[in-house]
Write a structure and sequence with these properties.
The chain is of the alpha/beta class. Helix content is 38%, strand content 21%.
Length: 248
């Protein structure tokens, strides 16, 4: 079951639309320095904000078990890089992780489904443990946005999306079962950030559906709030009724 197929298709079309995008292969020697804990960047020390000033912003992390989806970890930049921006701009950071199918297991099995849900949560929570120096990330789990304050000092010292991307990639690739990772930074003002935010919401709903299935759901699809997810994700409805058969 490819949980996030629709979102991945949207992302593929977005990448195809931007042949001018920049791509940087993962290189741990080019990581931006990190701090040991969350670093507060005060307003007076801020050069600008990504996703600030009520501009568009979005963030999600999704996985694929398709071995042919992509190989080689990289950072992708669509739009201006950090040194080119100079002002508040819309912003999105999207992550795709190519994982070993065994990492999620057989979703028809209750224990495997529980483990898959915990695994997906763990991968998403990695974003809370990347502390690039002078790059203060603020994430809202309610509206699926991510905003970043970039400090004047970090900008003067040469911070870039490639270097920050390597920080994220390094964390993802240290997780057993993650074969490759792609971190996509978007600052292009022409992008549809509301659509990206909707995809982020969809990723969240699909992940949470795994948890809800384990708790038990109504057998009448017309009464279930998760019907749209089951309609879209192939195999999700079968997974749901598989649980009901197990309980019978």
């Amino acid at each position: 079951m490819e949980l996030y197929q629709t979102v991945l298709e949207h992302l593929e079309k977005l990448l195809e639309k931007h042949p001018e995008r920049k791509e940087y292969a993962y290189d741990p020697s080019k990581k931006w320095p990190e701090t040991e804990k969350f670093e507060l960047v005060m307003g007076r020390d801020t050069a600008y904000e990504l996703g600030g000033s009520n501009l568009g912003a979005a963030n999600y992390t999704c996985v694929t078990t398709d071995p042919e989806a992509f190989t080689g970890s990289k950072t992708v930049v669509i739009g201006k890089d950090l040194k080119e921006t100079g002002m508040d701009v819309p912003y999105a950071r999207l992550v795709i992780l190519s994982v070993d199918p065994e990492m999620l297991g057989d979703l028809e099995n209750k224990k495997a489904s529980e483990r898959a849900f915990r695994t997906l949560q763990k991968l998403d929570f990695i974003k809370y443990h990347v502390f690039a120096k002078g790059y203060m990330v603020r994430t809202s789990s309610e509206n699926f946005k991510e905003q970043v304050r970039v400090s004047k000092k970090a900008l003067a010292e040469g911070i870039s999306f490639e270097k920050v991307g390597n920080c994220f990639l390094d964390r993802y690739l240290k997780v057993d079962g993650v074969k490759a990772a792609k971190v996509i930074f978007i600052t292009d003002p022409s992008e549809d950030y509301k659509a990206l935010q909707e995809d982020a919401k969809k990723v969240h709903e699909i992940t949470m559906t795994l948890s809800r299935i384990l708790e038990g759901m109504p057998t009448d699809c017309s009464m279930c709030s998760l019907k749209p997810v089951c309609d879209e994700v192939e195999g999700m409805r079968e997974l749901h009724f598989g649980k009901e058969r197990t309980k019978a």
